[in-house]
Design goal:
single chain; 119 residues; alpha+beta; three-stranded antiparallel beta sheet; 4 helices
Length: 119
């Protein structure tokens, strides 16, 4: 095992790769799906002071849509960025385990609403 950090790749490459992947997902995701998820995310931010992307997906499915039919299932990443850019929410340093089996209970970011009704 190589224990020499100077031989590790530049850590900024990981950040750049993540940003490139989010951009790629955004470019390939269906515009109507993104708009619907943005609308739902805004509704959730009005009602909850803190939230994850899980309830956005949950309400999307409750509206009678199929998550499995989405061409780009990673679309919530760009949608959350769009919500942040629009001043709807801001990222926190907190993470919670996702409720969705397809996410393998991985940690997902908790977001702070900037438009919560009690704000």
């Amino acid at each position: 095992m190589d224990c020499h950090p100077e031989r590790y790749p530049d850590p900024t490459l990981g950040e750049a790769n993540r940003e490139a992947q989010i951009k790629r997902v955004d470019e390939h995701a269906d515009e109507q799906v993104k708009d619907d998820l943005f609308r739902i995310g805004t509704e959730i931010a009005r009602r909850r002071a803190r939230f994850t992307s899980d309830p956005i997906r949950h309400l999307y499915v409750q509206e009678g849509r199929s998550w499995e039919a989405i061409r780009e299932p990673r679309v919530l990443g760009p949608v959350m960025r769009r919500l942040e850019s629009a001043g709807v929410c801001a990222p926190t340093e907190e993470f919670k385990l996702s409720i969705w089996a397809s996410n393998n209970r991985r940690p997902i970011r908790v977001w702070r609403s900037l438009i919560h009704e009690d704000a």
